[in-house]
Design brief:
heterodimer; A: 242 residues; Rossmann fold; globular; B: mainly alpha; two-stranded antiparallel ribbon; 6 strands
Chain lengths: 242, 365
Amino acid sequence: MTASTSSSLLRVRDLKVAYGGIQALKSIDLDVAPGELVAIIGSNGAGKTTTLKALAGLLQPSAGEIHYRGISLQNHAAHQLIQEGLVLVPEGRGVFARLTVEENLQMGAYCRNDKSSIAQDMQHIYKLFPRLAERHMQLAGTLSGGEQQMMALGRALMSRPKLLMLDEPSMGLAPMMVVKIFETIRNISAQGVSILLVEQNAKLALEVAQRGYVMESGLITLSDSAANLLGSAVVRRAYLGS
Amino acid sequence: MRNALKHLSSKGKRGAWIAFVMLAIVLLALPFFTEELFGRGWVRIMDFALLYIMLALGLNIVVGYAGLLDLGYIAFFAVGAYCYALLGSPQLGLHLPFWIILPLGALLACLFGVLLGAPTLRLRGDYLAIVTLGFGEIIRIFLNNLNAPINITNGPQGISMIDPIRFGEFSLGNTHELLGLTFPSVHLHYYLFLFFTLLVIFISLRLEDSRIGRAWMAIREDEVAAEAMGINTRNIKLLAFAMGATFGGLAGGLFAGFQGFVSPESFGLTESISVLCMVVLGGMGNINGVLLGSMLLVVLPEALRHGSGPAQQLLFGKTLIDPESLRMLLFGLALITVMLWRPAGLWPSNQRRRELVAENDAAQL
C-alpha cells in the first residue's frame, strides 16, 4: 500500500525517538503522497504526537530518515520546515491567547513577506471561517474551543502549507463542533493540501482519510486503505468499540 | 506628565502636532517648575524616575513582551554602571570620554544579556526566575569581592570620584548660565536623561509594532506554537535578553555619571524586584503602563516620606509614627491595593481594550 519513493511527498523510514531512556518511537515507516489525506490512529501513549513533533523538527530523532519532497530533513530546524510548507497544528491548538484572532492569523504568515497575497489569503480564511471574521478583533483566548480550533487551522493555512499535520483536532470539542472541524479538514484536503492527521477518534479520522496507519506503543502495527481499516475486525474491536 | 505621555504614544491623530509641541514645552519647563514648587530635591527624584523608566522599559521587553521572568535584571544596570565607573574614574586611572564609555557599557550589558540568555533558553517560569535571580546575585557578589587579589572594583567601598558626564568642556556636573537661565547639574542631567528616555520609548514603540515584537508575544503566549509558526525561538529569545540588557546597561552608565559613585549595594535583589514591580504594577507589555508604574513607584515613596509627617500633624496635631517607617508600610499597602483592584496593572495593554471595543460592536449588531 505504501506510495513509491518518487511520488511520495513525505517518506519516513525507521524513525526512532527516545525521551531519555524511554523509546517512544521504536521504528516508524510512513508515507504521504501529494494531495493525500492520511490518518494515524492509536490509543494514548502510542507515540502519535511524538511522530508529528519529530516530523515538524520539534524533537530530535535518535535515528531514521525523513525525506520531504525528496530532501532529507536531517539538519532542519522547526522554523525552516515551515518555509518548505511542512506545517504542524499542535495538540491543544496552541493559540496565542492574548493576541487577537487577526494577530493570530497574521502570525501564521510570519515566514512570508508578500504583503498583498497575505491580505488576500486572510480574506480567503475569513470566507472559509465566517465566525472568525465576526470575531477578528477578539482575543483568541476568549473564543470557544471549536472556534480556537478553526483559528488554529486558519493560522496554519496562512503559511500556505503543502503538508499540513494536525494533532488531535477533535480534542475537547463538542460533538457538533467535531463534525464541523472534520468537514473543514475535508475541504482543505479537497483544495489539494496533503494532510497527515493524528486522531484518537478513529472512526471520524478513517472516514475522511484515504489511507490509515494504526500505531501501538511506538510501532506501526497496521497500514491499509481507510475503508479496509474501518472494516477490519481488529481495528473495530480495539478502536471503534464494536 | 501622565497625560502628556499618553499623547506621545497616540500616533498620527488630529492635533497630534499641537499636542507634541505642548508636550515638548511642558517637558522642557518641568525641572524649573518642580524646583520652584517643591525644591531642587524633587528634580533629582525626577532624574531617578527617568533612569527607572529606562530600566523598566528594558525589563518590559524581557518580561512583558517575551514573557521571560527575569529576577536578576538589575545586574545589567550594574554592568553598565561599573563599566562607566571603571573607565572614567581614578580607580584604574582611565578617563575615557563619556561618548565612548556609555555605548561600551550598553554593549557589554548586551553581551551579558546573551550570556544569561544562552544557558537558560529551555527554562521557563519559576525555573527561569530562580536562575536569573542567581545570576543577579553572582554579578553583585563579584563586584563586592573583586578587590583582591587585584583591586579592580574596590569591593564594598565602591568606586567614587567618577568623572561627570562631559561634552567637550561642557560638564554636566557644574552649574551653567545659558540664555539668562541658571541650569544646575540636576537640570542638565534631567535633559540628558529625558533624551535617552525618549529614545528608549521610541525604540520600544517600534519594536512592539514589528515582526520581532510579534514574535516575542507569540513566544510569551505559546512557545511550541510559536516555533510551529516558523519563529526561530532561540534567536528571538536571545534578542529579548540582549535588548533588555542593553537598555539596562545604558541606564547604568548614566546612573554612574550622575551619581559620581557606585557600590555593589545599589544593585541588590530588592532593586530587581522594584523594577519588576514597576512593570507589573503599571501593566505588563504596555509602554504607557510601564511609564506610569515607574513614575508612581519612584514618586510615591518620596511623597509619602515628605507627606506623611505633615498629614499626621494635620489629623492628630502631632506626629504619632515616624514618617520614615510609615512610608514603606503605606507603600506596601498601596501595592497590594492596586494588585487586588487592577490585577492586569493600572494601565493594561491594548489587547484588552480592543477586546472590549469588539464586544461593544458585537452587542450593537
